[in-house]
């Protein structure tokens, strides 16, 4: 028996179609498509009608080009492998005035999106006046030496916060600055909204795309959203190896991890933190035979679950599914949606795609 990571392709595609509806979407596929598998995700997104993708890694961007020759690909992190950008027709962020001045003579023919820093302060131009200086300087160059400034973007760091004013502040700064700079340059692509902003405001006027990630993969960006807005196609499951009885006062697991307060049945399950189950996740329930049972101790390759007489060796144990969702644990403080996904160990878990005419392993 082996613990499993399983994605239902049909449910994944149906969810993407439902989330996007008629909105033009740039699908975020960074970090191997949130560890769903880049090849699988790109193929599924194409089937759902999405042809524009963004990632933070050049190698992933090149792989996307090989999977989807006609796609639009945007690289959210700057790189200096400019020949690769040209060869594979990859558009790249232009993050600052300093980057432009340093590499200006090497950027000819590169398609760039100007990035506004905003309140996240991760990267980007500090002001729209700096962006205009780049536009003006680029326009003065001979055409064959110019960049193609075809996009502009930002990222909202507070769109999933409701008790503070930062989201409204960063949104106002972006929209005001965008209106001003759009008088000087016609941008082909304008994108700023992550999953939380998209759910709150729909597509902004004058924007060409929403740039969304986690909601496409089945997790809500904030707790007040109804679960029906997105459906999780991922299931993480394991197996009961054995059911043990321990008496009141006896302990199980390393260093008295669990001490029974009464006669207790414990199922030994073949999954642990070495498989990517966070310790904070193990403070909550799992599902066996449709019923929730508390996890009592977590080890590298195993866990103990308190069970009743209905549970026996060989039973399936569900850690994540659409009935026991990643986002529900996010809102309980287990860790961000992407953190829980990223932790899962695809080397030790058996990786499966079901309801799929193709096979991805």
Automatic annotation (TrEMBL):
* Chain sites annotated for binding substrate: 122, 300
Cofactor(s) it depends on: pyridoxal 5'-phosphate
Q: Which domain of life is it from?
A: Bacteria
Q: What is its EC number?
A: 5.1.1.1
Gene Ontology terms, MF aspect: alanine racemase activity; pyridoxal phosphate binding
UniProt GO cellular component terms: cytosol
A Pfam family per the record: Ala_racemase_N
Q: Which InterPro entries match?
A: Ala_racemase, Ala_racemase_C, Ala_racemase_N
Where is each Alanine racemase C-terminal domain found? 233-354
Descriptive protein name: Alanine racemase
Classification from the root reads: Bacteria, Bacillati, Bacillota, Bacilli, Bacillales
């Amino acid at each position: 028996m082996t613990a499993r990571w399983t994605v239902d392709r049909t449910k994944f595609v149906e969810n993407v179609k439902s989330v996007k509806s008629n909105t033009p979407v740039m699908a975020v596929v960074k970090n191997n498509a949130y560890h769903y598998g880049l090849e699988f995700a790109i193929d599924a997104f194409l089937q759902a009608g999405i042809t524009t993708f963004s990632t933070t890694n050049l190698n992933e961007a090149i792989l996307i080009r090989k999977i989807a020759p006609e796609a639009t690909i945007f690289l959210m992190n700057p790189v200096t492998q400019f020949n690769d950008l040209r060869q594979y027709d990859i558009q790249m962020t232009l993050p600052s005035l300093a980057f432009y001045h340093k590499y200006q003579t090497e950027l000819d023919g590169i398609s760039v999106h100007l990035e506004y820093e905003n309140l996240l302060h991760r990267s980007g131009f500090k002001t729209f006046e700096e962006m205009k200086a780049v536009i003006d300087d680029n326009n003065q160059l001979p055409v064959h030496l110019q960049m193609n400034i075809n996009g502009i973007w930002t990222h909202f760091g507070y769109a999933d916060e409701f008790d503070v004013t930062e989201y409204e502040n960063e949104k106002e700064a972006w929209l005001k600055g965008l209106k001003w700079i759009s008088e000087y340059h016609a941008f082909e692509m304008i994108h700023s909204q992550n999953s939380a902003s998209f759910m709150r405001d729909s597509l902004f006027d004058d924007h060409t795309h929403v740039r969304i990630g986690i909601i496409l993969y089945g997790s809500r960006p904030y707790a007040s959203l109804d679960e029906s807005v997105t459906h999780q196609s991922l299931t993480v499951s394991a197996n009961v190896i054995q059911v043990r009885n321990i008496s009141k006062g006896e302990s199980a697991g390393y260093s008295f991890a669990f001490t029974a307060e009464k006669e207790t049945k414990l199922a030994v399950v073949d999954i642990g933190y070495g498989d990517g189950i966070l310790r904070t996740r193990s403070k909550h329930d799992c599902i066996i035979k449709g019923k929730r049972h508390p996890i009592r101790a977590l080890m590298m390759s195993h866990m103990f679950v308190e069970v009743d007489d209905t549970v026996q060796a060989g039973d399936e144990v569900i850690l994540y599914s659409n009935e026991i969702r990643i986002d529900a644990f996010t809102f309980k403080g287990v860790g961000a949606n992407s953190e829980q996904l990223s932790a899962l160990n695809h080397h030790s878990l058996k990786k499966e795609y079901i309801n799929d005419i193709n096979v991805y392993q």
